[in-house]
Amino acid sequence: MVQEFEDHGELTVEVRADRILEAARALKNGPSQFTLLSGVTCADFPDEPGRFRLAYHLRSVQTGGRVRLRAWAGGLDPQIDSVTSVWPGADWQEREVFDQFGVRFHGHPDLCRILNPLDWDGHPLRRDYPIGGEEVQFTDAV
Amino acid sequence: MSTTDPLSAFPLAMEGREAVEGATREGRPLTPTERAIAAVEAYTPAEAAERTLRNEMLADSRPGSRQPLIINMGPNHPSTHGVLRVIVELDGEVVREVVPVVGYLHTGIEKQCENKTWWQAITCVTRMDYLAPFANIHSYVLAVEKLLDMQIPARAEWIRVLLSELNRLASHLVFLGTSGLEMGAMSIFFYCYRERDEVLDMFEMVSGERMNHRYFQVGGCAQDIPEGFLERLTKFLKEMPGRIDEYEALLTNNPIWIDRMKGIGIIPAEQLLGLGVTGPTLRAAGIGLDLRKSEPYSGYEHFQFDVPTEIAGDCYARYLVRVREMRESVKIMQQAIDGLPEGPFISDDRKVVLPPREELAYSMEALIHHFKLVTEGFKVPAGEAYATIESPRGEMGCYVVSDGGPKPYRVHMRDPSFVNLQALRPLAKGGYLADLIAVIASLDPVMGGVDR
Known about the structure:
heterodimer, A: alpha/beta, Beta Polymerase, domain 2, 5-stranded mixed sheet, B: mainly alpha, Cytochrome-c3 Hydrogenase, chain B, 3-stranded antiparallel sheet, 19 helices, globular
């Protein structure tokens, strides 16, 4: 664990990327039983050494508690272990992060693009991906 | 056809070709989803028919001895609720494998939000789940308000509850109408859309638009509810329980409806939970998880209502849960009308909220605030927040990250349709092809929310 803090009433636990699976298992099987994975998402910070900050939002059905698990995937070759073995529901959400940010998830059963076309070039939600880079269809027809 | 070039098997502009091209570029083998897409597109319909015929002649009649038939449903298929594509592997009429393919409605809304100011982004998020626009905005404004540490006037919160519940009613009406249509019950569709139209008219009265409202603002609501709205809503709510009885009379004991829905699409509740499924689908399997009760927001703790649950976990139970939720929504709205507090409909924090229009005529300060807010937008302290609400389909979450500027650094919407749709595969496997339609209908996915 790197750090733990509470902000706006939300508990955040940050772990090293190589310990994510261990942390996920501990949170799911620990005393608070975070059995429901609300979401997996990511934010891109190009100036940070870790660059891609993943956020896993967990919810405990038993206690009603919530926690945010965070990890930095690394800038040059972003990768992290997949948590699909802990929460099968991570499947599509990790595919979405892969699609939009290019973070590779080890051990993911089906890691391909999900929202963008399958042969899409680049990862649109990265901060250095330009908006309006795609040519608007039929603009010359007017 | 040359054997050295795998791409020559695909016609141009087909997704199988895109999958092979993408995988080759990344230097990896095709994943299961990509393989399924490539397999279903590798043959023209004529070739596929010929192969199937040949296989049929070769096989004996025992089940399981046939070559599987792979068919492609969608993306344009009336029973798939929009542009959902499902690749189905069939043994006779039994579904052996289901591969849902999504993304046809992807419009990059999350990217768009990053290039708008905080208040402009509301316009984007409302267009995601187009059957529950109020739910989208609600989670977004709650997340932003959390970052701003804002206090919301009581009246604004009650109006939010009122419209969220009206929206839930409208959304469930669409579920009921379209699933009826898919199961061959035509009349229910017209009854449901009659009432939904009335709801949309009321939305128009409040927000000026029938869909994609921009009514909830950071700090409250855009304006007070108009005169005559509460009377119209009261009249509607008085009629509604009788109308719901009408729907139930058409369906609940209808033998065809029961045959198509009962015992269809069941997996254990623990598996649903593992898949992240929330909302009516989870509640129909016996887990009474409702964010309005477990983590009340916008003053839901002041309302008396039940969370309907069923234990069967089949399509019929999901139908029953949604119908009973409609009745609960009516109850909540009646309480909201009775107890609607007086007072401002929006916070008076001038650094975030636009000043009232009439003040611009005489107050220089108001004019400056107005100008700054409209041109530059308000700044949100750096940090991150995750706000969740109970949308008609489950947990609608909004994760916002701010770098302290006037534009969101990142907006992520955790849409329940997207996560719930993952359950389609285990739910439909092993059933009949016709049951697949019932399962899709009972999950009630909205593709605008899935693809965002």
